[in-house]
Amino acid sequence: MLWCDYNEFYVMNRIKCIVSYDGSKFHGFQVQNQFRTVQGEIQKAIKNICKDENIVIHASGRTDAKVHGRRQVFHFDTLREMPEKQWKRAINHFLPNDIYIIDSFLVDENFHSRYSAIKKEYHYMLSMNDYSPFETNYIYQYGKELDIEAMRNAAKIFIGEHDFASFCAVDQYGNTIRTLYQIEIENNQGIVTFKLVGNGFRRYMVRHLVGGLIQVGAHRITKEFLEELLESKGQKKCLFKAKPQGLYLHEVFYK
Q1: CA distance 151 to 118
Q2: Which of 26, 89, 165, 239 lies in the 20 to 30 Å Cα band around 51?
Q3: Is 64 among the residues known to form the active site?
Q4: Under 8 Å CB-to-CB from 2, ≥6 apart: which residues?
C-alpha cells in the first residue's frame, strides 16, 4: 500500500496477528473509556513500537467482558519496517501477562481480519462437578447433571442457515441470518464442551444458544420450545443466556 506526502512515497505495511487472552480481568475486547480492554492494551503496546503513528487495530470480532480468546485475529497498518515474526516478539514485550501474541504475519492490503474471515469456532465450557474456585473464571460452574443426549438432539435444529434474531442482541441495521455448520457437545469427566462453528455470530448468540441447550439438558424446556423460538425469527426471545466465563473464541478461519 503506497501513499505520498510532499512528493515522498511511503510503504504502508499490513500486519496480521493471532492473539490469545484471558478475558477475566477485561471489560471486553473493544476499546472503552475508563475500562481495561484487550484492544486498548494491544494498541498501547504497539504505540510503544510505532511511536509517531496513531495505530488502530481491527479484530475479527468483539468479545464481551470475561470472555476469553484462544486464537483471536487482528490486523493493523504501519509505516514501521520489521521482519514479520519480529512483530510477535516486539508487541509481547509491552503486553501484560494476560495477553499473548501467538504469531505475526506481513499480509496483503486486501486482507481484513473481519471481512476476510469465512468462519469462526467458539467453545463453551461447563462443569457438572462440584464447585472449583480455580476454574470459576474459565469454566461455568453449573454443578448439576445435564442430559447430554437431549442437548445433542436439540442442537440439530440450529444446523444450517437460519434467522437467529431470537438468540442474539438485535439492532435495526444488523443482519441476523447466519449459517451454523457444526454443534458438538462433549462430556469428559463432568466437563461439558460445546463446540459451535459458523460463518458468523451476532452478539450474545453463542451464549443464548448454549443457554437454551442447557435448559433442555436440565429438562426445563423441550427441543420443540427452542424450535418455536427459532422459527419466530425474533418475535419471541430466548431468555436463557449462559454466563460469559465459559466462552472462548477458539479459532478464526480464512481462505
Answers
A1: 27
A2: 26
A3: yes
A4: 9, 10, 11, 12
Q: What is the pLDDT of residues 131-159, one digit of tens each?
A: 999 999 999 999 999 999 999 999 999 99
Q: Is the dihedral of CA 171, 162, 119, 72 positive or negative?
A: positive
C-alpha–C-alpha distance, residues 75 and 114, integer Å: 9
Give the residue among 127, 157, 138 at the shortest CA–CA distance from 238. Answer: 157
Count of C-beta atoms within a 10 Å radius of residue 89: 12
CA–CA distances in Å: residue 144 to residues 126, 148, 149, 211: 10, 12, 15, 14
Q: What pTM value is reported for the model?
A: 0.93
Cβ(120)–Cβ(197) below 8 Å: yes
Beta strands in 54-198 (DSSP E): 58-59, 68-78, 99-107, 117-127, 140-141, 160-163, 177-188, 191-198
Catalytic, out of 64, 77, 98, 103: 64
What are the C-alpha distances in Å from 235 to residues 28, 69, 232?
29, 32, 5
For residue 7, the 8-state DSSP code is T
* Strand duo 177-188 + 58-59: pairing: unpaired
